[in-house]
Fold:
Amino acid sequence: MNPFSLSPDRVLEEAVTFNKRLASGFETLSGLGDVEPGSCEKDAVYSEDKLVLYRYRPLREDNRIGVPLLITYALVNRPYVVDLQPDRSLVRAMLESGLDVYLIDWGYPDGADRFLGLDDYINGYLKRCVDHVRAAHELDAINLLGICQGGTFSMCFAALYPERVRNLITMVAPVDFQTPDNLLSHWTQDMDVDLLVDTLGNIPGEMLNWTYLSLKPFRLTGQKYLGLVDILEDRKQTENFLRMEKWIFDSPDQAGEAFREFTRDFYQKNLLMKGGLEIGGKKVDLSKITMPVLNIYATEDHLVPPDASRPLEKLVGTEDYTAVEFKGGHIGIYVSSRAQRQVPPAIHDWIAARV
Amino acid sequence: MPMSDSNTSNWINDWQALQRQYWDAWGTTNRDGPTDSTHGQDAERPWAESVDAWWRAAGVPDGVARNLSAQGRSFLDMGQDVLRQFTELDSGGADAAQAWSQAVQHWLDHARGDQDWGWWTRPFGDYQQFATHMLGLSQHQYEELLASGDGEAAVREQLERWLSLPAFGYTREIQEDLQSLIRAWLAHRAATEAYREQLAQVGTGAAERMQARIAAMAEAGEKISSLRQLFDLWVDAGEEAYSEIAFSPEYRRIYGDLVNTMMVVRQGIQKMLERKARQNGLPTRTELDTAHARIHELRREMRELKASLGQGDDS
Structure:
């Protein structure tokens, strides 16, 4: 049976409707102004170079969990995705559940930061942020939540300084960088990262944007914008789209040395998985992670495929390991309504049972 | 170009009225054959041209608008091509579904092997935009350079011979740098061509997959009842075809070549710019890097020293 059930009049009408939506969309777009991300109040409690450590103001005083949670996000993209807007905010939901939340903002590296390496980020910045929170709360160890590349950093940190981490939570964080379904990894294998960093210094955010768009070009450069036409008449949905769009393309340049080390040691040599990784001359051995671990990954993640996260279970030394599979993608785990319903309660309940 | 609310709404009403006339005229054209009713717009791409005209008239800035416009064009191009083919094939008889099927097939045949994936102009365009920024060239310069050297084998051979000549004399180093830069550009040009060919294969693969999907829908008794459904089928087929190529060892090698050769070109350009800067007493990237590296090392030593004295954050 022939599946085509079209008519010239309907096709023309569809084209006319499309253009009408564009027209009314202009009214929506022209009246929007800037769309600013962020919904929860926070205070800068520590800063160093371009890094700022924030503490979110509590949303409830009762039933608070005494051990604070420090969120460490990736160097790529900006951490405000965890608090994009009131109804898309993992942070808000965590605050409402009684967690005391800190967040590291790595800032936007410039030419002066070109020689910052992973040693500076993990043994330096991250360690000093953890120590600041520990001192502020007079605690030996705090809860650490690492997201995406920040999750990989948090694994390294917890392995290097296990006594300072009470509970480790990793979210869409890769540990095996060479799974067969990892396109990003596939492309880096024949790339001369030394030539790249020696030539460019810092790696421009624009290069990362181009790379990410190239992962799914039909959807990310095409279908997505046609989908926008469908919602252009709805101001709220358009604002949501633009806020997300702002975040997606808000890509800081990457400090050259850190990019070199991360690409070479993680993507090209897969040392975190295979063993032999050193950061600042210190051996990273994941079996030293003996504190409880909660590993959350997304089943449809094209940037960090679930198989890139799952092997953590076999590599850590803890006997208290929990995995949570989130049904969704790398972006959906931050902003989808399902994520708002499922992820913060999972983190809260898991921590509450361990402090 | 911002507009006041009342101006905006008047303008949109006028535009919509004009569009209605335009679409009606175009509908008539499709049914009754060509007339002069395309109102002076691009006769080949009137649907898509209407989107461009709208954005131009509205003065909407780049960014999201650019993407909307590009994808609006793609979508309407597809609709127009398919409808045009249908109009030519349909005899007004009972088998309109067959005419639609052939119209889509004709469009897919056109998309096959097209480096822009049929009516999709973004992927290679996005790469070109990225490359021009990386190399500090204008789009025009980059395109001209890509097109250069397309001549006869004898001319290319002559160029190769010149590039292999030893440099000498007062400007020896400059000659050598120039020869290296041209060699690097030729290598990058070849890598870009290989990348473009890989992308072109996606069009073929997408067309085949879309045919298979349409056949599967026919088998399952499912219907295609809108342009948008057709578009979404193409997106699914395209991603599948692209993914297969992008995961191949060949694509990986070509992608590596593309980035690596681009960096060699950029190094050559930087070297020449730095020579010019030094001649004019200006600081260079290399000098700044040296200074930053020394500052970084000093900070590290200071932290270690403080830690050893029990004074630092790291102690």
Observations:
- The CA atoms of residues 119 and 280 of chain A lie 5 Å apart.
